[in-house]
Write a structure and sequence with these properties.
mainly beta, single chain, Neural/epithelial_adhesion, 8-stranded mixed sheet
């Protein structure tokens, strides 16, 4: 828009009656563009006493920052700095003389706006797909004509349907795309002044990120030093910045998290040394000026079963025991139980046939309940947590507390005056029991008395009593106590006696020199174990008994060194710590008379060369020693016997020299002083004579032409044996 400031010539006052006072302004007409500065000089002729300037609003001008006045007697200068549109109008300079007569001159100031681009930004950025408005803020007076150019071509709505120049001179682009990006020229002109100017504006189209992932879920196993890598692909303009997030927090590079950015918009997150807590959702986020986009990736972490809680349990016999096993893992493992004593297993929902064992489990916890706990339940129990990833086993010990239990029913002990005896009170208990001895309401102290002494060990207390009189025999009480309960056991110390007599004495295997005595043990051992049996024997008519002790408490004794054809008497008594008991009924037996020996037993063995060894085994010698063996032998084709005498103390006979490849018959007889035994017959066969020269072997193993060649050069013998 144009503004005009008109200059006027001096106008004489209508009330002036002389021409002595005249006023003029230095410029006739002034055009001034906005922002420029100008000064005007007002000159008065005559004798003015005052020169004053008035603005277009008729107000007297006083000096300010944009308007300055420099006034002398007949001259005044008005300076306008940085003119603005509002400064346009008629300015008057008025002179006043001493009589109050005034004269003035005026000037009209015209102000116009030059072409000006105000704060045009470059580049200007827009989001892909939106309606873009490229701002070109240009002013002038009069209003300029604006034309837009792209790639040196004028933009017209006829050829660019999405483009439109708005009334405010801005360029509007519908659904802007990356292809619209570039440098646009905004050109403005004022035809009246021939003024023209332009500004180049770079337009940037920002494309929101587009994000994609190759794989949305991953599996890994914890605590196996495993790593997993997520990959995101992004595009957009400007290039998006990719960040990784978990649980609302941005992940920063560390030893565990390795973030790698590659060309082509690829970003990778590597998680090292996977642990159970690393499972869950991870977010890949791409951000640029046009927006952001996110994609989620899920990491499933499998964790090997691990038993986190299993403790030893102590239960009281007869009560209930609850054993708890807690395990974790991903997936949650199944829990089973195993009893180490017999290998029996229990799983969730199992119940034993007797109803005492029952298993209940839920959410990684299993409880084994044992009702009516028995001592046989004591021991190790194994808890095993198992999943498809692996297994874990731990063991616990079930300890059972119970009231003291006496381990023996041996409650009667025997002794005699002066003989010490140990009364043993054996107890099994948990926790260990304290043990006391009492005698007729009195407690026997650990130090003992003159004839009693207490010896204690784990689970055992021995009361040593040395009876000195009848008062020391009788009842003794053993008391065992722990925090579960108390038990009592009564022992009786009785006076011991010698054993009663053995009975049913029998003789067997009687020969010339030997006899075997058997008998039945006594009905009573006198309260003290039998030490041995005493067997006495003598010839009938003799007064001297000979003693033979049994081996330990065997009820069989062999009598040796007897005389042949002799009558003997025999009796048996039992002996214990108290002494010897009564003898049994006396039995009589007679040894056999002397006779010829029994035939000897024979076994053969091939000797060296032309010899044969006959082994001789003595049988019953008939009551007298064997004097000699008479060995007769011959071939099966001869009638003549050859005889060889062998001393009776020998256990073999060597027959030699014999013939090769021959069968022999042998007749052996044993002789003692009484006579000859019946003969024992035996046969054996002598093999063929061995080939000791080796000729047969050589001929059999070498071709004839080799033998001939060997005879010319060397002669040798090869030893040979069967």
């Amino acid at each position: 828009m144009f503004l005009f400031l008109f200059l006027s010539f001096p106008v004489p006052s209508l009330f002036s009656n002389t021409a002595a006072l005249q006023v003029s302004i230095s410029l006739n007409k002034v055009e001034l563009s906005v922002g420029e500065s100008k000064f005007f000089i007002c000159t008065a002729i005559g004798e003015p006493v005052r020169l004053e300037w008035y603005n277009p609003q008729g107000e007297r001008i006083v000096p300010s920052k944009r308007m300055a006045l420099h006034t002398e007697t007949s001259r005044s200068r008005l300076i306008i700095y940085n003119a603005i549109i509002e400064d346009a109008g008629i300015y008057r300079c008025q002179a006043t003389d001493a009589t109050g007569h005034t004269e003035e001159a005026s000037v009209v100031l015209e102000i116009y706006q030059r072409l000006t681009f105000r704060d045009v930004q470059s580049p200007q950025e827009f989001r892909h797909g939106e309606t873009a408005e490229v701002v070109c803020d240009v002013i002038s007076s009069p209003v300029p004509v604006v034309v837009w150019y792209y790639q040196d071509k004028e933009i017209t709505e006829e050829h660019h349907s999405r483009f439109q120049v708005l009334a405010n001179n801005n360029l509007q682009i519908q659904q802007v795309t990356k292809a619209d990006e570039g440098v646009y020229r905004c050109e403005a002109s004022v035809e009246a002044r021939g003024e023209i100017d332009f500004v180049d504006i770079a337009m940037v189209v920002n494309v929101p990120p587009v994000l994609s992932v190759f794989q949305q879920s991953f599996n890994a196993t914890a605590d196996y030093q495993e790593s997993v890598t997520f990959t995101c692909m992004t595009s957009g303009s400007p290039d998006p910045v990719v960040t990784w997030h978990r649980k609302g927090q941005q992940l920063e590079p560390s030893e565990q998290y390795i973030i790698t950015r590659l060309e082509g918009g690829r970003s990778m997150l590597t998680i090292r040394n996977i642990r159970q807590g690393d499972g869950g959702t991870y977010t890949c986020k791409a951000t640029n000026k046009a927006g952001s986009q996110e994609r989620e990736i899920f990491l499933k972490v499998f964790v090997q079963p691990h038993i986190t809680q299993l403790k030893n349990v102590t239960a009281v016999e007869g009560s209930a025991a609850m054993i708890s096993c807690v395990a974790e893992g991903e997936p949650l493992p199944d829990i089973s139980w195993r009893r180490a004593s017999d290998g029996q297993t229990f799983v969730d929902g199992d119940k034993s046939q007797d109803g005492r064992f029952e298993v209940r489990g839920r959410h990684g916890k299993s409880v084994l309940t044992i009702s009516g706990v028995r001592l046989t339940d004591l021991g190790r129990f194994d808890c095993e947590a198992l999943s498809r990833i692996g297994g874990h086993q731990k063991s616990m010990f079930l300890d059972i507390e119970y009231i003291p239990k006496f381990l023996t029913n041996h409650t009667i002990y025997y002794s005699w005056e002066g003989n010490p005896v140990n009364i043993s009170c054996d107890v099994m208990s948990n926790p260990p029991a304290t043990m006391l001895w009492r005698r007729e309401r009195f407690t026997i102290s650990a130090e003992g008395t003159a004839n009693t002494r207490v010896h204690s060990a784990d689970g055992k207390s021995v009361l040593e009593v040395t009876p000195m009189s009848d008062r020391d025999f009788g009842r003794y009480n053993c008391t065992a106590r722990n925090n579960i309960g108390v038990r009592y056991q009564e022992f009786i110390l009785a006076q011991a006696d010698v054993p009663s007599n053995p009975y049913s004495v029998r003789l067997s295997a009687v020969s010339q020199r030997l006899a075997t005595v058997t008998f039945m043990k006594p009905d009573s051992h006198g309260g003290v174990p039998i030490s041995y049996y005493l067997v006495q024997y003598k010839e009938v008519g003799s007064q001297d008994w000979r003693d033979v002790k049994s081996h330990s408490i065997q009820t069989t004794v062999v009598l040796t060194g007897l005389e042949p054809n002799t009558t003997y008497e025999v009796r048996v008594a039992a002996v214990n710590g108290k002494g010897q008991g009564e003898f049994s009924h006396t039995e009589t037996f007679q040894t056999l008379p002397i006779r010829e020996p029994s035939p000897p037993a024979v076994h053969g063995q091939r000797g060296m060369g032309k010899a044969y060894r006959l082994g001789l085994v003595k049988q019953d010698d008939g009551g007298m020693p064997i004097v000699e063996y008479i060995v007769k032998y011959k071939t099966d084709k001869e009638e003549q016997w050859m005889t060889k005498l062998v001393p009776g103390a020998n256990d073999f006979a060597m027959l030699q020299p014999l013939q090769w490849n021959t069968r022999y018959e042998v007749e052996i007889t044993a002789r003692n002083v009484k006579g000859l035994s019946e003969p024992t017959f035996y046969q054996f066969f002598m093999p063929q004579k061995p080939d000791i020269t080796g000729k047969r072997m050589i001929k059999a193993n070498f071709p004839a032409h080799c033998l001939k060649a060997a005879k010319k050069k060397i002669s040798f013998k090869i030893p040979f044996s069967h």
